[in-house]
Design a protein that fits this description.
InterPro entries: Asp/Orn_carbamoyltranf_P-bd, Asp/Orn_carbamoylTrfase, Asp/Orn_carbamoylTrfase_sf, Asp_carbamoyltransf, Asp_carbamoyltransf_Asp/Orn-bd. The chain contains nine helices and eleven strands. By secondary structure, it is α/β, with parallel strands linked by helices. α2 links the parallel β2 (38-43) and β3. The chain binds phosphoric acid mono(formamide)ester.
Length: 302
């Protein structure tokens, strides 16, 4: 069974395989299972991109989509996540996609459930499908990872995107640098070095901005948006000092004029909406990988 929980559980070959499958899906290749197949999306935290791009991916693969609503489910009566998954499994669901506020929520489930879990984000921990779509976007741009410099800028400590990307990019041969307010540096991430934003943006091939994760700050961020933008954000003036070939990325949602100037969101260098587009193809590829591990072959047609 092929769970997708953390990037460091994928080999380089598996990452390359997923990126290659996603490229195939982007070119219109189809993969259709011969029998009716149910998958369930369980989002215990808000989401727009991940939730709906998984749903689009599922529909493109002709899967039957069960959208679980925590507010109207028996979770409200105290049912555990394990019992919820076992229930979905027993009624015929073949894979579950889960976003959950708890870091590593899957550790107590991974050996006990009989269907693949695709992690759609766990607290501050991991966001493997975001990382894979980011890798696809970078690969499309530069055709390599080796030797690239990727600057990840913002609220590093609370970012599952920073954690997943730093691990995978380092393993793929890129150099990762971090930048952002000192109190959000995270020395527990064993990759990357911290530099001032002005150094980061002038030397990076990829400038990856992160949202301030207000919901993980316990109610107090102590930051004024204008001050933050000037000190730590990608301003219009800083963009002018980026390398001519470098690109801007952001997992989104973005806060305009906080971590990124509003006019840069759709500028020529920005790949932010391309990342979202790539998310559909990556999610098709990881669904295929997971379902093949439990169902075997499928009808493939061009
Ligand atoms: N990038 C991302 O995970 O966005 P959502 O929270 O909208 O899914």
């Amino acid at each position: 069974m092929k769970h997708l929980l953390k990037m460091n559980e994928l080999t380089i070959e598996e990452i390359e395989q997923i990126l290659s499958e996603a490229e195939q899906f982007s070119k219109g290749v189809q993969w259709i299972l011969p029998e009716q197949t149910f998958v369930a999306n369980l989002f215990f935290e808000p989401s727009t991109r991940t939730k709906f791009s998984f749903e689009v991916a599922e529909k493109k693969l002709h899967l039957e989509v069960l959208n679980f609503e925590a507010e109207t489910s028996s979770v409200q009566k105290g049912e555990s996540l394990y019992d919820t998954i076992r229930t979905l499994e027993s009624i015929g669901t073949k894979a579950v996609i889960i976003r959950h506020p708890e870091d590593n929520y899957f550790e107590t489930l991974r050996e006990k459930v009989g269907i693949p879990i695709l992690n759609a984000g766990d607290g501050c921990g991991n966001h493997p499908t975001q990382c894979l779509l980011d890798l696809l976007t970078i690969k499309q741009e530069f055709a390599r990872f080796e030797g690239l410099k990727v600057a990840i800028i913002g609220d590093i400590r609370h970012s599952r995107v920073a954690r997943s990307n730093a691990e995978a990019l380092t393993r793929l041969g890129a150099e990762v640098v971090f930048s952002g307010p000192t109190e959000w540096h995270d020395q527990s991430i064993p990759y990357g070095t911290y530099v001032h934003i002005d150094e980061a943006i002038q030397t990076a091939d990829v400038v990856m901005l992160l949202r301030i994760q207000h919901e993980r700050h316990g109610g107090a961020t102590g930051k004024n948006a204008k001050d933050y933008h000037e000190q730590f954000g990608l301003t219009v003036e800083r963009e002018k000092r980026m390398k001519s070939s470098s690109i801007i990325m952001h997992p989104a949602p973005f806060n305009r004029d906080v971590e990124i100037a509003s006019e840069l969101v759709e500028c020529e260098r920005s790949r932010i909406f391309k990342q979202m587009e790539n998310g559909v193809y990556i999610r098709m590829a990881v669904l295929k990988r997971a379902l093949q591990s439990v169902q075997g072959g499928a009808l493939v047609c061009q």
